[in-house]
Task: inverse folding
DNA sequence: CTGTTAGCGCATTCAC
DNA sequence: GTGAATGCGCTAACAG
């Protein structure tokens, strides 16, 4: 027949079951993941009235045992779906596959594990982000740029994909561009400064830098010292505060945002749809499009405030005659 | 106390009232507004279970009488909120102010009228879009670009704001840039071709073109004929099909998307929140951020399909050693 | 195992 | 006017 169950009535009836979703991260003190969490919390607030509670557990950085404990704790408190930023470790894979067999769905967030059962992966199109970076450099360098990359370790999935994207775009489409240097920086401000500085000193021909360690801003200081005139074209990642400041200040030309808030939000919504409507996501890989932000993207117009018409900028047809 | 009404229960109880939202446009056959409508429909599908119906009325282009009739019809069928793409005419203003007095909220979509009571305006930050265009030209022209603009009539609110944004950015921040020509094209393919061609012929010094009449693609043909080598830097608006094709083909350098789907979606959500929770929007002006799309933004990675791991692009740490 | 009923939290209606 | 009862559409617990 034409019967469509009514989601609202269904969730009202289901409220008493006290459904829980658990989000597990293994990163502390990272601005990008703070935004992921705020996306999670935004979605959590929206689905609270549906009788679904969301709890977030932030484990220690890359601590496998801690992540395993968090998974156990989540199961123990009876959670009905797990959203996970996974650590790439066989113990996690094993644990998640077991979980899947017991009927608890797993949603990967920002990264995923191969050979591991899951409902889906919610992330960003890291590969495309890399290709976009390549194109930006191509556009501003007249197709003859010399690129250096400062990056987290390439063993991380997203990082690897991003660099492959940049590389493949250059090879396939921008023959005049060159990838000249790549510097992998472990998570440490001191090393970020040193590696960035060393790269620039070792490669004076560099005119483009892909600074993809936004969490570490001391590398930006190294760049500022060695390039006080802002001759280098710098593209970075995400809209965390130090990056935004550098874009506004004219030091960074563009930043490619991996939409952490949307990622967190979407992951919760996938879990929600699964728990309430038993809807499996249409795609195993839900990739949020990276977005490009430049200086003017952060321009405060003032028009978005409380009043409709901004007296400084109301419609003025007379101002629109041709000019010279 | 700490009482928070439960939205779900409330809407279940309210279902019998058969609430209606009416969306009224005055544009036919415009791809941008097709996307606005699809955003509306997406939100409509989501709130259907809440017992709220959405109907869309698309009137004749800029026909004031028709828009007035549509408003009357909406009121007559008992709709509880009106979402309107307004025509700038005093009769509309009068009618809307009357409506407001009878308690029917009006939400402006993509444009608004001054001196007119409304719940809020949902649009795009047109001013910022203009500033972004200016910055893109500045970036790729080494700060010495000569800009020509092809635009719809500046009497339209968004159009005017956009051009003011571009202009003010140039005046304030890009002293080496010049606005050389502005061509206002009424909605007509023949004129679009002719005006665009005339502008290019009259201004051989032009190296940047802001082609902001995406609905009319014959101007692009004029550009293609006069600039077969793609020496002009072209920035356009929105992601409608002819523009996307031209970006993919390398003719258009970048397009600034005014997020029609998000605008339509947001307008419905505002009405929904008002009708169900009696929540007034926090801002009178809800401005969606314009987004920048370049060629690689349209790159199909293939990874977003049904499988998680793309064998062509799985993690390969060995590929990430430094190169030359 | 199938059929019936209570109740999720609220708005509306009806009785007083 | 104030207060109690009904039902929105569904799930869960219950009874047969």
Result:
């Amino acid at each position: 027949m034409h019967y469509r169950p009514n989601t609202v009535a269904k969730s009202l009836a289901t409220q008493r079951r006290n459904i829980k979703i658990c989000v597990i991260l293994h990163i502390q003190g990272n601005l990008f993941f703070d935004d992921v969490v705020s996306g999670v919390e935004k979605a959590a607030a929206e689905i609270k009235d549906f009788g679904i509670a969301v709890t977030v557990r932030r484990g220690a950085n890359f601590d496998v045992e801690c992540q395993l404990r968090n998974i156990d704790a989540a199961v123990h408190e009876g959670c009905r779906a797990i959203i996970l930023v996974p650590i790439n470790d066989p113990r996690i894979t094993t644990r998640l596959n077991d979980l899947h067999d017991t009927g608890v769905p797993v949603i990967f967030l920002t990264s995923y594990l191969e050979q591991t059962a899951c409902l889906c992966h919610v992330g960003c199109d890291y590969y495309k982000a890399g290709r976009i970076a390549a194109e930006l450099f191509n556009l501003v360098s007249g197709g003859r740029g010399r690129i250096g990359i400062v990056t987290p370790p390439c063993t991380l999935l997203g990082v690897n994909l991003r660099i492959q994207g940049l590389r493949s775009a250059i090879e396939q489409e921008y023959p005049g561009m060159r990838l000249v240097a790549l510097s992998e920086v472990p998570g440490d401000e001191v090393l970020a400064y040193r590696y960035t500085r060393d790269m620039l000193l070792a490669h004076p021909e560099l005119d483009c830098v892909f600074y993809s360690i936004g969490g570490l801003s001391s590398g930006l200081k190294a760049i500022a010292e060695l390039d006080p005139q802002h001759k280098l074209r710098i593209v970075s990642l995400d809209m965390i505060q130090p990056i935004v400041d550098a874009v506004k200040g004219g030091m960074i030309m563009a930043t490619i945002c991996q939409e952490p808030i949307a990622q967190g939000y979407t992951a919760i919504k996938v879990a929600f749809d699964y728990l309430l409507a038993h809807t499996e996501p249409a795609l195993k890989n839900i990739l949020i499009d990276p977005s490009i932000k430049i200086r003017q993207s952060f321009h405060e117009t003032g028009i978005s405030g409380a009043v409709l018409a901004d007296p400084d900028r109301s419609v003025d047809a007379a101002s629109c005659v041709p000019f010279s």
Summary: Chain A is about 40% helix and 20% strand. The radius of gyration of chain A is 23 Å. Residues 5-6, 8-14, 16-17 of chain A lie near DNA strand D (CB under 10 Å from a C1'). Chain A touches chain B through 75 residues (CB under 8 Å).
